[in-house]
Write a structure and sequence with these properties.
Blueprint: H1 3-16, E1 31-35, H2 37-40, H3 45-51, E2 66-69, H4 71-78, H5 83-95, E3 96-105, E4 113-121, E5 126-131, E6 138-140, E7 146-148, H6 161-174, E8 178-181, E9 188-191, E10 193-198, H7 201-211, E11 215-219, H8 235-251, E12 253-262, E13 265-273, E14 279-287
Antiparallel strand pairs: 1-14, 2-3, 3-4, 4-5, 5-10, 6-7, 8-9, 11-12, 12-13, 13-14
């Protein structure tokens, strides 16, 4: 680890040693986080999901949040159910230069996973499809409350006539298409898939995962509870958590809060950019039942 990053890591580690995330039904520690671009590559939500195994016991068995899945198996098991399913896949195949599938694990149970499919269109824009899981678009407010909202990111508008037509056709076909995910919630049947396009792979995946409520990006939300909070935080805790907020804000630029998960279990990251172009911050976990 670079010396500047190591120093910041140690500062954060010292402040968070006895700190739990303030708003959770269960106690989870706040841990320091460092992402060095030279070692790990560009910082994106996808790269984070494919690289990071958060330091919580419930993660140890399941490991990474996102893994590459077998495309052929996914198409055979999920997308051969009806003629309409097959039409969707034919439209994708005919309009993309390649397709791939990824498996995403939920945060509560390592066995619970769902899959997404995505690829590059022949006109150069990215496209992805995901099951519209009942994530309820739960959002993390500055007071630590969970509120019901809408997707945060605007819908990217396709830039070519071919992709506008493709998006319109797929959106209509997918709206009432049966979703069957054999590895989530003991075998999950629902209605509706989501389709999103993007100028880049990153923007498409960010939009897609935001739309289904699994990955949300906010402006930085301070960890310090409001003084009128109903929760009882002692003076020592309040001083430490205020120092943590100040440390993050004074050492990191473009600071954001990321909320990942569905149902009751969420990872919460506060990450910003260091002076050297790396990324650092903290990560914790929350359970809202």
């Amino acid at each position: 680890m670079k010396s500047n990053n190591a120093e910041l890591f140690q500062q954060i580690q010292k402040l968070t040693r006895d700190l739990d995330f303030p708003w959770s039904d269960s106690d989870y520690p706040i841990n320091p986080f460092v992402w060095e671009v030279e070692t790990l590559g560009e910082f994106t939500i996808e790269n984070l999901f494919r690289s990071e195994t958060p330091n919580f016991l419930s993660y140890q068995e399941g490991g990474k949040i996102m893994k590459t899945a077998n495309l052929d198996d996914y198409l055979e098991n999920v997308w051969q159910k009806t003629e309409k399913h097959q039409i969707v896949i034919e439209l994708l195949k005919n309009n993309t230069s390649f397709l791939e599938a990824a498996e995403i694990r939920t945060l509560g149970d390592p066995a619970d996973t769902f899959k997404i499919i995505f690829g590059l269109t022949k006109s150069g824009e990215w496209i992805g499809i995901a099951p519209q899981l009942p994530a309820d678009f739960e959002e993390y407010s500055p007071r630590g409350e969970m509120i019901i909202g809408e997707p945060l990111l605007p819908v990217y508008q396709p830039q070519t006539a071919t992709n506008i037509q493709l998006f319109t056709q797929l959106e209509t076909l997918l709206a009432d298409l049966e979703v069957y995910e054999p590895n989530i919630l003991g075998g999950f049947t629902y209605t509706g898939f989501t389709v999103r396009l993007g100028e880049t792979r990153e923007s498409m995946l960010n939009n897609l995962l935001d739309k289904i409520g699994f990955a949300r990006t906010f402006s930085f939300q301070k960890f310090t509870p409001d003084t009128d909070s109903e929760d009882d935080f002692d003076e020592e805790y309040m001083e430490a958590i205020q120092e943590l907020d100040a440390l993050l804000q004074s050492n990191l630029s473009n600071l954001h809060t990321y909320l990942f998960g569905i149902g009751c279990c969420y990872n919460i990251y506060a990450i910003g950019e260091t002076e050297d172009g790396d990324f650092a911050g903290v990560v914790s976990m929350a359970v809202w039942s």
